[in-house]
Amino acid sequence: MRNWSEPKKNKAHIELIPMIDVMMFLLVFFVLISLNVIPALGLKTQLPSASSAQQLKPQKKAIITLGAGDQLQLDGQPLVLDALVNTLKQQQQENQTTTIIVNSDKEVAVERLVAVMDTLRQGGFFSISIATRKQ
């Protein structure tokens, strides 16, 4: 009697080697992108040179500190709000803008901060920044 064997059934299985190859390719690609080895889109430019080129000078800055209890300081010197604009104008040189940085205590009322900023704007100072701390 003949024994007819049934053909072997191949079970489906996942090939891991090609999947690992693809994952390694993606890993290398993203590492190279993050390291800027592969250039991003954009124009490559070379700036022209000039014999009279100068480095930009930083603008003059004044630091105003608002403390709790109606304290006001300009560059560390105590001051009253009414004299703030006149003192800044005396310190400001002609044709030079003064950047004003306001350090305000977190306990200072917003109304007081706005009053100081309004006084500065009315006095002709428009470059005003509020200092914050990074969290």
Automatic annotation (TrEMBL):
InterPro entries: ExbD (IPR003400). One of its GO terms (cellular component) is plasma membrane. One of its GO terms (biological process) is protein transport. This is Biopolymer transport protein ExbD. It is found in: Cell membrane. Pfam families: ExbD. It is a single-pass membrane protein; Single-pass type II membrane protein. It comes from the Bacteria. The keyword Secreted does not apply. The gene is exbD_1. Keywords: Cell membrane, Membrane, Protein transport, Transmembrane, Transmembrane helix, Transport. It comes from Klebsiella spallanzanii. Belongs to the ExbD/TolR family. Signal peptide: none annotated. PANTHER family: BIOPOLYMER TRANSPORT PROTEIN EXBD-RELATED, EXBD MEMBRANE COMPONENT OF PMF-DRIVEN MACROMOLECULE IMPORT SYSTEM. GO terms for molecular function: transmembrane transporter activity. The keyword Hydrolase does not apply.
